[in-house]
């Protein structure tokens, strides 16, 4: 697992990644804010933060912006599929995860679901029935319209 601060990412988003790094976690200390996945992880994180020419910040990006400058010290953790093996081993699809019939996309999806199940992040909606409430110390962001877990604005 690799990690860097939001500040470091914003200053220089070019990160030398370990092979098969597809899962990312935004965290502030023990508070897990968001878990995501992408084949193009650096581009996806940039998009979340509104750093892409075609993107507005996502909900996690708005949370970073709303809590600036404190959010500059939050961590972005980058996980390989191997890093996620322990979390996946606690799920019902562990046997399929290592199967030669399982595509890379399937493994990435399973790893993301397992990491969401392990951490119960505040902002994830899918696969997260027991989401951790966003602590009141954070400046809140827009509600996620696809969710019943609206943040108090």
Structure description:
The chain is α+β, with helices and mostly antiparallel strands and 153 residues long. It has one domain. It is built from 6 helices and 4 strands. It is globular. The chain starts with a strand and ends in a 34-residue tail after the last helix.
Question: Which terms would index this structure?
Answer:
153 residues, alpha+beta, 6 helices, 4 strands, 31% helix, 16% strand, disordered C terminus
Please describe the topology of this protein.
Elements: E1 2-5, H1 6-11, E2 21-28, E3 31-37, H2 41-48, H3 59-66, E4 75-80, H4 85-89, H5 94-97, H6 104-119
Antiparallel strand pairs: 1-4, 2-3, 2-4
What ranges have pLDDT less than 50 throughout 5 or more consecutive residues?
A: 145-153
| Structural class by sheet pairing and helices | alpha+beta
- Secondary-structure element pattern, one letter each: EHEEHHEHHH
> Could you tell me the strand content as a percent range?
15-25%
Major pleated sheet: 4 strands, antiparallel
* Domain module tally: 1
Mean pLDDT: 87
- How far the N terminus sits from the C terminus, by CA atoms, comes to 34 Å
Number of E strands: 4
The coarse silhouette is: globular
User: Measured on Cα atoms, how large is the radius of gyration?
Assistant: 15 Å
Q: What is this entry, summarized?
A:
The chain is an alpha+beta fold and 153 residues long. It has helices at residues 6-11, 41-48, 59-66, 85-89, 94-97, 104-119, and strands spanning 2-5, 21-28, 31-37, 75-80.
